[in-house]
User: Fold UvrABC system protein A from Actinomyces ruminicola.
Amino acid sequence: MSTAVPANSSPAAPTAISVRGARVHNLKNVDVEVPLGKLVTVAGVSGSGKSSLALGVLYAEGARRYLESLSTYTRRRLTQAARPDVDEVLHVPAALALHQRPPVPGVRSTFGTSTEVLSSLRLAYSRLGSHCCPNGHANAPSTDVALEIPTTCAACGVEFYGPGAEMMAFNSEGACPRCEGTGVVRTVDEATLVPDESLTIDEGAVAPWQNLMWSLMKDVAREMGVRTDVPFRELTEREREIVFHGPAEKRHILYVNEKTGVAGEMDFTYYSAVHTVENALSKVKDERGMKRVEKFLHEAVCPDCGGSRLSELVRSTKVRGIGLDEACRLPLSELVEWAAGIADTMPQELVAMARQIVDELIVTARRLLDLGLGYLSLDRASSTLSTGERQRVQLARAVRNRTTGVLYVLDEPSIGLHPANLAGLTGVLRDLLADGNSVLVVDHDVALLRQADWLLEIGPGSGHAGGEIVVNAPVAQAVADPASRIAPFITGAAEVICREPTEAEEVFAHGAVHLETAPIHTVHALDVAIPEQRLTAVTGVSGSGKTTLVLESLVPALRALADDAPLPAPATSIQTEQAQRVVVVDASPIGTNVRSTVATYSGVMDELRRVYARTPAAREAGLRAGDFSYNTGSLRCAHCDGTGQIVLDVQFLPDVDIVCPECGGSRYGEAARDIRRVLADGDRDAAGLSLPELLALTVDEAEQVCADLPRARRHLHLLSELGLGYLTLGETTTALSGGEAQRLKLSADLGRDQHGTVFVLDEPSIGLHPLDVRVLLGVLDRLVERGASVVVIEHDLDMIANADWVIDMGPGGGEAGGRVVAAGTPEQLAADPASITGRYLAEHLAQSSAH
Assistant:
């Protein structure tokens, strides 16, 4: 006899992810409960372990378990995540990560294709457009295309089929035949073919023959009547014409193999320098091959399609009087307004279909508008989007997919977002929650943290001083916890101003960089003054023209001025009293080489190698400084070749990186560990430290033991002042966060006089806790004190409030921006009603002063 199971006896659904014993990177055997179905924010200073928990544990384990549920056949074709160093993770759903730096899309990807707005727009043009017959006569919109029946031209009577949506795609039949749907044509730039005319052809004057594996061509050219033993500049016009454009004729040549010295003879077809490049371009199969060829190419907008990528037939179809190419050039905000009126222009029988198509387009576009991307046009190449823009495109696509039961892990989604765009971001995150997902956000934007459901703070410090759970509670409860280091910034209790402000009348006391530009993109002609030996912030909503002003106008103009070269467009004039050099510092990773470490990049490693080479044991062994290099020296570990790790191939499972069992990750062989240096501080072992042991110390620890080494100590002290004292000397630079990488790049410039130098930083506050922002402001202040002029593109209100001068672009993005709305001190900007940034800055300053 069966017994009915009571309805309420089923186990309750889990409400949190349980993590036990997490030890990824600097996490200290962490146990934590992370709520499900909530907007959870993870905060902490740089290097505290935020990303280690969010991405290294929760995302890695969620993604790994999902992949393990797939078949072996499928798993073999996917890149699999290795199991994180954690004892147990319970109740983790399938996970998706939206990284801080999404991969750069290919050449055929545009804002329209990556967001799928273009798919809806193509459908609108296919079903609702006025199509032209083969004789060029326009026909009124009809149901023929939707019914897949031929249209009879009202003017000439010819029957034709209107194009379907796929036939209007530039990745298929709708592509311009000239550029094959890329919008650009590549032609050989003859100026690059012979970069040094003082060389002879025998000496390698013709670069394509040298670089593209056609070294025998000089022998063929000799048979064609070209002198190859005189400087290229002395060749006659006929000889130069043969080199650049000579016919593909076969010649019998005698040659000597350059590697073996063996002579031979053969029949060989002549490839001119231009044809050599064109032939190589036609055979390019990957990015590496393209890089070899592109140096000889000039890229220009396709003259046939005007860069639209579309064929003439596709461009001939009109909706509301404009073609698909014209619609794709509209900023998204304008496109939505234009699309909303399509149904009103349609015949009655098409109105219902028009509304359905347009509604789909507007729903997709609305997410992007909410995320502050309304200034972008559909034809904008995806490769030109910023990392923040690409991440927001990913986020909009995730919401559109309407998945449920997924853990979304977002790394700094507020990157590049003006405070005015933040409400749209939180709205989209709430949409993900409404669909039954969980959202975990690693971010420092206090406005975003205020709107979260839950705050998980990791710290309290960085590196060894971090890796612990400081606070894990609902936001209202977390901000009342005295242990929280972010709470004073969320509540507004923390002091905003942390550097001595410059009085308005003193801002231009040291002169100015005066820049004038012509109109470009959506930016109008500008006339801007940037004070010298001051900290200037360039602000404005996304797409307002900040990047165009600073990175595309100011930086190239200053470089041209330094090189005494013509000013590049759009700059028309630049005047300066001091500026002689420009340095651009961004937060991009420092290379991809695991051999680069904090010690090598900062320059301290060279001094340490020299010091250890002078020890008695090293001299006795006949060792030089070069022997102490873990990259090429004789003391490097032979088992891992100085990388400190080895890769295990586990067939069906992902490759596993493990610490080298021979050197324990130190990168050095046994002999290096026997060469020790007696230390300055007497607290340590009297036997001293070996170089591998020294590289395992943090910067702060190494500064103490190198107190008797002035050069090394100076390097280490600079790193410590930059707030990087928690990093170990042997830490790879590829493992550093964006903020850490940026400060490490600045370290080389801190110790010298900087008069005449302009430092340009693009969003230096990316990835920085408010406390780290204060450290960065201290660094920038030191540069200014040493005579530098510092220009930052910023959205962070703390950075803006501490600037000497603010230039606010806008008022909106795209066509609605491109002007200097306001310029002045932070106080003047906060009082200017025309400035959107000023409005948020005033609120920020008022909230701080209220406490």
Notes: DSSP finds 32 helices and 30 strands in the chain. The CA atoms of residues 99 and 413 lie 8 Å apart. The domain at 598-735 is CATH 1.20.1580.10 (ABC transporter ATPase like fold).
